[in-house]
Amino acid sequence: MFEIANAMGTQGGQEGGSLLVWLPWILIFLVFYLLLIRPQHKRQKEHQKMLSILKKGDRVVTNSGMYGTIVGINDKENIVVLKVAENVKIEFLKTSIAGKA
């Protein structure tokens, strides 16, 4: 009789224990989301907003560290033409612009 009661108690304990098994994983995911994923999405949105408001004459820096002034923008092909020196113009992908200088 004691064995049957003990076995029944074990089954009830396993159901509550399964939540305790998943709780650390849920907490790890929550911390991972709050510390890594959410801030990255926020930075991506800000970068996309900055790219959408670029215009001719803006001084920018590329991801490679090159400074230049925008002399042309082709939104259809996603290309920006930068003037980096006198009579020197270089085409870059719009997404390679890191920010305004």
Plain-language structure description:
The protein is α+β, with helices and mostly antiparallel strands. The chain folds into 2 domains: 1-53; 55-101, SH3 type barrels, CATH 2.30.30.100. It has one helix at 2-52, and strands at 59-62, 67-74, 79-85, 88-93, 97-100. It has a 5-stranded antiparallel β-sheet with strand order 4-3-2-1-5, covered by helices on one side.
Output the structural class: alpha+beta
Number of strands: 5
Radius of gyration: 28 Å
Secondary-structure element order, N to C? HEEEEE
Layout of helices and strands, plus pairs?
Blueprint: H1 2-52, E1 59-62, E2 67-74, E3 79-85, E4 88-93, E5 97-100
Antiparallel strand pairs: 1-2, 1-5, 2-3, 3-4
What labels would you give this structure?
5-stranded antiparallel sheet, 101 residues, rod-shaped, SH3 type barrels, alpha+beta, single chain, 2 domains
Give a concise summary.
The chain is α+β, with helices and mostly antiparallel strands.
